[in-house]
Amino acid sequence: MAASDLPNTTTSMPPSVLYNNIWQQFGPILERYNMEFCTIPLTFDLQMNPFRYRKTNVPEPMFLVHAVMALAGHHVKSPSTDDHHYTALKLLRESINASGNVEDGCSMLDAIMILFSFDETQSTLGYWSTHLKGAYGLIEACGGIEAWTTSARADAQIGLLLWWDAITSLLSRENCVFPYAYVEAILSNPDNRKWNFFDLCGCPHSVVTLLMQVVRLSAEKRQSSSMRYVTFDTTMVAQIEQALESWHHISPAALAFGSEEDIQKDQDCMHCSEAWRHGLLLYIYRVFRWKPGSPIPTHVVRWARVVVDHVVACRDESMVARQALLPLFFAGCEQRDRSIRQKIVQFCSVWNDRTRYQMFGSTIPLLEEVWAEQEAKGFENVWWGHVVDRKHTVYIRGQPLIKVDRAAGLLPCLRNQACTLVFQALHSSMHKQARNILLLRIKRTESISKFALSNKNPARKSSVLIHDCKAVCVLTVEQSLSGP
């Protein structure tokens, strides 16, 4: 056969697609992200939406593009979501190490915000502490809060970071990542800002102010409980409690001349605000007042029912009700009535499907675990803190292997001092049948790895590669980690 008779395999290959710019390659999904997906975490969309992708970035930071594509990919169930997520983390880490000015920092902070939101789509447990510490370090490296709050968008982003910091600390009863000076700066002069906390997270400014104080007090209370000669002073707690009990929603004066929709919107805001107010009262009782074995006062049961009633009173088409997930969780842990419990489960399930944020769905097994333990040990002997704390400590042979640093990042507490691994783990329990997934960081190389430890046979040596949105490598961990 002559050479000219051979098939031309080169010309038969499909040509690769060449793009002139990022928008030509990813334009449709980036547009949809800006129009739809970036508004989901917020109560109402804002002009300076902290999650919106800014087209003005030239050239486009690829870590930010991949972060957006990861979050958008989750919503459209794209098979490339994992790749985009890993690439975003990798490029962001490289960029943070190579830059130190505010202009570059703005894009990095954008990416951190989006990656935080991405983790919320996966579970109630995530790399919260890691993201928050990264954001705080970035802000400090680029001039501190004074250099950032001149931008309304960056100001709103810091406000949301402080909210996330407070919420994760509220659950863990540990110290916040951001110093209180940041909180004081953001809470000052609310009327001069182009955003407000309710639009960001569904909690009014005055209640947020009280919540920020409760967070610090709960950390102090937990620390003092381990000190023999320290007695926690509840004076400030009583003052906050009194302020919450006397708080009431104030409708805007312009509402008298507003439309029917304005009235409906104001009612939704009132219901969500009341849910947060009563949820904080429930929190204060359990963290500062409750003693194991003591009967639950009737007013606590009433507060719990009030939270549920306010949440379900919000209109179905409104996005407001979903912002009250945490107070609804606190209320659910105080409910014994099965019909009310079922209503809470249904709420979480509906919003899990509507938003595609798995923090709603993963709240269900957490509630069910609290309820099951209450039925087994007695309602007066169990509270949500027992279950949450247990979720954030990994046990091998009944002994704590690592203890939690805030709500996600785990600090080493290894019994084998020769071990060179520093665990930074996520304990995932999105469904009853889900396995416990641990994400590990190798201290010497700082590379992200993944290790899945089977619940069924924890003594078995495991080496498992799992493709999901949280890690990329394989790590073999021997049973000897639990040795003396």
TrEMBL record:
It comes from the Eukaryota. It is found in: Nucleus. Coiled coil: none annotated. InterPro entries: Fun_TF (IPR021858). This is Fungal-specific transcription factor domain-containing protein. It comes from Aspergillus niger. One of its GO terms (cellular component) is nucleus. Keywords: Nucleus.
